[in-house]
Design a protein that fits this description.
alpha+beta, single chain, elongated, 4-stranded antiparallel beta sheet
């Protein structure tokens, strides 16, 4: 037996075993990246879209005056109906009959979930004949009669008892526009409930020369 070759082979195996035993070990579950992985480009983080905060918008619109369903109702007078404009007569004509007035507005469609901030009805300046306010105030009420005919005389619903000792320049109708918003329209009724039928003269006011307005201020979120 060649002892020299056997000793040499033993020495090589022993050195290989010692080198493997002294090499650092990798903990279980950890993968050592290869040189190619170490040189891979790093991807930048994905950009997040900016957060958009809701914006509250305040706007105003003017309702459409429905002249065809506005005017005066005057029982015992010919004609009994005077439609097609703002009321031409509110009050007493001679000693025979008393006229009432109606205004009808179509409320435009507003953005979804709009909040009504205010609503103002402006009938315009009135023309006065005689002295109708000497017998009592002018009453404004909310009405919901739709198309007006002679049977609607006296049909203010009494829920809007605003009274004036002179012709008002404007009237706050916010609460009633909020109600009318569901139906898409708003009707306003006006009358003198007191008069003197024995004085032989007319005592009334007229709004016929005016274009009334209903201005609505509202807000919504976009």
């Amino acid at each position: 037996m060649n002892y020299k070759k056997a000793f040499t082979l033993f020495t090589v195996v022993l050195l290989a075993f010692m080198i493997q035993a002294c090499a650092p070990s990798t903990p279980a579950g950890i993968t050592v990246p290869t040189p190619a992985e170490n040189n891979a480009p790093v991807q930048p983080p994905t950009a997040q879209p900016p957060t958009v905060e809701p914006v509250t918008v305040v706007a105003a619109t003017t309702a459409v005056f429905d002249a065809g369903n506005s005017g005066s109702l005057c029982p015992k007078r010919s004609p009994e109906l005077a439609l097609g404009s703002a009321p031409p007569i509110i009050g007493e004509i001679g000693d025979e009959y008393r006229c009432e007035g109606y205004w009808t507005f179509i409320i435009p469609e507003l953005p979804s979930k709009s909040k009504i901030l205010s609503a103002t009805f402006s009938p315009g300046a009135c023309t006065m004949v005689g002295n109708p306010f000497a017998y009592g105030p002018l009453y404004f009420e909310y009405a919901a009669v739709g198309e007006i005919d002679v049977t609607d005389y006296g049909r203010g619903d009494g829920s809007y008892q605003s009274e004036y000792a002179e012709c008002p320049a404007s009237i706050d109708v916010t609460a009633y526009v909020r109600t009318g918003l569901r139906s898409g329209s708003l009707q306003i009724f006006a009358a003198f409930y007191a008069s003197d039928y024995g004085n032989g003269t007319g005592d009334y006011i007229s709004y016929q020369a005016n274009m009334p307005t209903l201005t609505i201020e509202y807000s919504y979120t976009q």
